[in-house]
Every structure is written in C-alpha cells, then in structure tokens.
Amino acid sequence: FCLLLQKAAIGGVTPALHNIGNCYADGKGVQQSEKNAVLYYQAADEAGDHFASFTLGTWYYNGKGGLPADHKKAVELQMKAAQRRHPGAMFNVGMALFLGDGVDKDKANSIQWLRHAAESGVVPARLNLAKIYLEDPLARQFDEAIDILQPIVDKNDAARELLAEIQRMRSSQP
Q1: Per-residue pLDDT tens for 58-78?
Q2: Tens-place pLDDT, residues 9-64
Q3: How far is CA 122 from CA 50, 87, 91, 149, in A?
Q4: pLDDT, position 170
Q5: pTM for the whole thing?
Q6: Are 56 and 77 in contact (CB under 8 A)?
Q7: Once rounded to an integer, what is the mean pLDDT over residues 167-171?
Q8: Residue 94 CB neighbour total at 10 angstroms
Q9: How far apart are CA 5 and CA 9, in angstroms?
C-alpha cells in the first residue's frame, strides 16, 4: 500500500505524502519511524495538505517525532489547517485562543473558531462553547448555550447534564 502511495506522491498527489507519513508513524508496510513520518508530513504541509498541517501541529504541541514541544508553532500549523476548514484544527485553535496557549488570549476569536468547529460536528467544541456562554455570571448567554447543545443533547450525556445545569441556573435567577 505504501509503495502505491509513494508512486502517487511522485506523480504529484499531495494527500499521498500525508498518508505515507501515516504509514511511517504507524509502521504499516514500512518500518515504523516517527522521524520519517515528520519528513513526509512536512512535505505534505508545504504542498498545502491541511491534514498534514493538523498532524504536525499536534506533534509539535506534544513534542512527538523528534520535534520540540512548541505550542506557538503548533498553533501556527493548526491555524493553517483551520483556515482550510479542518474541524479538529478549528477546535484546537479555538481552545488555544481561549486559554492563551501558544498564542495571546482572545475570547472573541476563540468563540468564532469554536462555533466553526461545532458547526462541523466537533462535539467537544459544542460543550466548551456552551460553558463559555455560561462563564460570566453577569452576562450569561443561556439561549446561546442551549442552542449550541440542542443538536447533540439526545446523543451525549455531558450535553444532557450541562443542559440540566443551565435549566437549574436559569430557574434560580431572579
């Protein structure tokens, strides 16, 4: 399989580079080598593959594959992937902006990225966004929190619990 991917990569099929990186990362069809995986992920990232940008970002964040743990570089790579609509990257960028992890804190942009991730189906984005809407006791946004949780409440215990908490909070307000 990896041999076919190498032929595809030589033929200019950019996603093949990322998939070869996965082969090396997982040791599938080749000897496992995170260093070789990094080389292919970097080539794929440079060629514009947003999946590779996402993967490299997570590897930089965790210091994996011989890469230094570098949260700033991780956020830069996640942002590249997020701008190309990668759902997981949109979530990671939103949380990094909210926490100020590798980037300056920016709640407004954090909310925008978490909304994009939530709209793309990332459940943790919905849960975190609902919590953000509830964090300021003077400006709680109950309706926004309920709206963001509603699509997942039937399938997610944490969403159900948070919705019940919102209803308790709302009923205890004067």
Answers
A1: 999 999 999 999 999 999 999
A2: 777 778 889 999 999 999 998 999 999 999 999 999 999 999 999 999 999 999 99
A3: 17, 7, 7, 12
A4: 86
A5: 0.90
A6: yes
A7: 88
A8: 29
A9: 6
Amino acid at 140: R
Over range 110-119, report the average pLDDT: 96
In terms of Cβ atoms closer than 10 Å to its own Cβ (0-12, 13-18, 19+), residue 78 is buried
Distance CA 149, CA 85 (A): 21
Average pLDDT over residues 83-112: 97
Instruction: Return d(Cα 138, Cα 125) in angstroms, integer.
Output: 23
Place of tokens 């609509």: 85
Contacts of 119 (CB under 8 A, 6+ apart): none
The span from the CA of 129 to the CA of 90, in Å, is 13
What the block records as the tokens of 50 is 């947003």
Residues composing the chain = 174
